[in-house]
Design a protein that fits this description.
By secondary structure, the chain is an alpha+beta fold. It has four helices and six strands. Helix 1 (9-26) packs antiparallel against helix 4. It comes from Peribacillus simplex.
Length: 153
């Protein structure tokens, strides 16, 4: 399974646009899309909206590590509240949270041809948590990304 789509700017536009759309719709601070690399189990962040810098592009985590790796390995959404308090493990294990100075986040898995291969993360830098209705909007956006990902590769 090759994820060459994120190396081609024209084909990657729908993913970036979806991130921007979710950012505006939810009035949140950050939206990011991570994809599992095609040549191994590592997970990298490829698209973001509301980012403060480009550090997300250099973040790669092992399968099962970090918020992206954990969401892909479990296949379940993950919620982080009041980061870095009340987390499992150390804060350094959540590089996207540190790089973007996020306090609250909600991340959901994205499937590629029935295999979990991506994560959509929405986060806030303030003390505003991600509401239940916003979580449903995030799940809907993930389904839209799944369709775009499966149709473009």
């Amino acid at each position: 399974m090759e994820f060459n789509v994120y190396n081609q700017s024209r084909k990657g536009q729908p993913f970036k646009q979806t991130c921007v759309q979710v950012l505006k719709e939810l009035d949140c601070d950050f939206v990011g899309l991570a994809l599992q690399n095609s040549n191994g189990p590592d997970v990298s962040w490829h698209y973001a909206a509301g980012n403060r810098n480009d550090k997300y592009k250099r973040i790669t985590v092992r399968y099962g590590k970090g918020i992206a790796g954990k969401v892909i390995s479990t296949g379940r959404p993950m919620k982080i509240e009041d980061f870095p308090n009340n987390i499992l493990g150390k804060a350094l294990e959540y590089p996207i949270m540190l790089a973007e100075n996020l306090r609250f986040a909600f991340a959901v898995p994205i499937q590629f041809k029935v295999v979990l291969k991506g994560v959509l993360l929405v986060g806030n830098r303030t003390t505003q948590p991600i509401s239940e209705s916003d979580q449903q909007t995030i799940l809907d956006a993930a389904k839209k990304l799944e369709k775009e990902l499966n149709s473009s590769i």
